[in-house]
């Protein structure tokens, strides 16, 4: 737990609690005993505290923190820190690996800190819904000032050793043997006065500006926190650091108790464990196939087909993980553009050496030797099947073939090959090199080995891989469908798009449904609806009632917007007009693209088609993605820049668009909707409950095997607010399943033809039998 040894006058206490040396009560008790022993021993004149194995203590043990032991754990940690702080013999912390949370706080309570260059320090408690409650909010500002302390504690960001040295958080960076250096350093400071080494005795450097600093940061923190209580509570604790140390510690303790007992802390700790637990996958249809039994194929080289935004992002992720990549793109301009993007991103990350691992090509035969291919072409089944047919012939027989699709049928794609067991879905999220989620989809014939391979790939490239079954939209996009539909029905009834967005953003999402569609592109869903024959390129299918499809309520507003060319924000922002656009297109209009400098003459393009709308459609459905992307942008810059909002040139701030508001008004009138006032609560409930209800269907059908898989998908891929734990956790722990059921019953009685509001049989069953999502495999054992 804490090994005691002496080197002459130096006592060394090495925390030994593998793998991360986290603080349990036993570890802390062992530290207290060691400290007392060293203090008692007259031959000991200094003390070194270090971590055995790979790291200095990475903080309090979360398993223990989640149970009834939390309060004693905290008081033990505070006791250790007090022993250390007030010790009459100098205490030196020797830091390597990750000194996090309580580990870093112990170091701050010590008199000296040495670190190896690779060490990382941080106070990440805010991510767990807590604050650094063992003196971190009081000692850190005494070293770095209130302003920096607020920044470091409310972000929980990593502090690298060199930065820690600059900030005065460590005294020396040690290049050689850390323990040896620490022992000789301790010896060198023996007998020196300790008073000025005790951080608790210092004053906060910017104490006179504390109110000013807090005021200046409060707004930003509130905006970033989006409903999370921990960040602002951290600020309150830091504010108390200008008080005498004991008073500040008392304030910190009160605020820590408040946070530790909050549902948000429990939710965020659930998120921490769920992020790790998804790695322990099992096949929803056959539990015998799981992370223990299935062996992944070793992947050293990956082919990426398609160098659009997704393909480039995927390539960056793979290169950063040290894999060899062959990037194939049939359009030279697009390929060059992607190379420039990849180079720039890797350079920013100081990882330019990784470029040597990249081969770019326009020739499929270059893929003959790769271990795996990730296809990232345009989201079109015909095109994807064609690519897979080619890949099946060209790649080696044992190569895994993955499709980066956001919802197309993996079995149909697999059927284009003679190796359906090696075909799998890997749904990356945009930007693919930034977003952590990787939704991995198995088809009917995907082998256990192939599943294990893509789950392993997720870990290798630093993503959170979640295994799901094959259905339209998989888990994430499937659940988004009802949410979007309900948002549209709210427009029909009288809410404006920005009101829906505001309510959802106040709940904690970074973006409401309409701003999100503007960003992602309204045409994505439109194309999918056309493929599903819910609409056509020219309007509703013949003999179809405007507001119904297959007996279900349908809102055609997004289709109408697409027909007007209102496809999304990308088009407004990605290009620059050389000459003013004219509505009638009687003159030549030239448009140059910032992205690749290409110039289009719209009139010449139009000469080949009857109407502008037809031209948009021809290009949208063309398989030539590069042409599509450019021309779509060209047309859109002439037309309206977004679906529902307008954006000033160069800005991403969504502004209500009077044209759209008028259009919605006319639509309401035409279809006899009476505008009514709808509360934010109703907006949030209808949108989110219909999404969560779909989650129950997904579980019922075995598309996801555990509620935590759904939570992780929403947290890491869709911006679901972390402090609520994810949709399924939130509804079970915060709302209550019974309340969800009653609300859905109320809403579905009011809107009998909104099928997604009909409570799922699984939900009904759980409420009737008192069942819980935990029984379906959440991490409850750890809560
Ligand atoms: C009561 C005291 C009150 C207040 C003061 C102090 C508060 C605290 O200290 S709160 C805790 C602060 N520390 C953290 O938040 C660290 C969290 N851990 C991490 O960030 C990472 O695990 C890591 C950077 C330390 C290591 O990352 P990596 O190498 O990628 O490993 P894993 O994340 O996969 O972790 C391996 C294994 O360890 C488990 N684990 C990690 N941290 C803790 C912890 N603090 N307590 C208990 N267990 C922990 C993690 O779940 C993994 O377990 P499995 O292999 O079973 O999945």
List the helices and strands and how they pair.
Blueprint: E1 2-7, E2 10-15, H1 25-40, E3 46-51, H2 62-65, H3 70-86, E4 91-95, E5 98-100, H4 102-109, E6 112-115, E7 120-122, H5 136-155, E8 159-160, H6 161-167, E9 172-173, H7 178-189, H8 210-225, H9 230-239, H10 245-260, H11 263-277, E10 282-283, E11 286-290, E12 301-305, H12 309-320, E13 324-328, H13 332-348, E14 358-361, E15 372-375, H14 381-394, E16 400-403, H15 410-414, E17 423-428, E18 437-442, H16 448-460, E19 464-468, H17 476-493, H18 497-507, H19 513-520, H20 522-531, E20 548-549, E21 552-553, H21 557-563, H22 570-573, E22 575-577, E23 590-593, E24 599-601, H23 602-606, H24 612-620, H25 625-638, E25 645-646, E26 655-656, H26 658-670, H27 680-700, H28 707-717, H29 727-735, H30 737-750, H31 761-769
Parallel strand pairs: 2-3, 3-4, 4-6, 5-7, 6-9, 12-13, 12-15, 13-14, 15-16, 16-17, 18-19
Antiparallel strand pairs: 1-2, 7-8, 10-11, 17-18, 20-21, 22-23, 23-24, 25-26
The protein binds ligand L2IWW6SD.
Please provide the count of β strands.
26
Q: What is Rg?
A: 29 Å
Q: Tell me about the biggest sheet?
A: 8 strands, mixed
Q: Strand order across the biggest sheet?
A: 14-13-12-15-16-17-18-19
Named CATH topology of the largest domain? 2-enoyl-CoA Hydratase, Chain A, domain 1
Domain unit count: 3
Q: What is the arithmetic mean of pLDDT? A: 88
Query: How does CATH name the architecture of the largest domain?
Result: Alpha-Beta Complex
CATH top level class name of the largest domain: Alpha Beta
| Distance from first to last alpha carbon | 24 Å
| Structural class label | alpha/beta
Low-confidence stretches: 570-600, 608-613, 615-641, 778-783
Strand content: 5-15%
Number of continuous helical runs = 31
Annotated CATH homologous superfamily of the largest domain? 2-enoyl-CoA Hydratase, Chain A, domain 1
* Global outline: globular
> Which ligands are bound?
ligand L2IWW6SD
Share of helix among residues? 40-55%
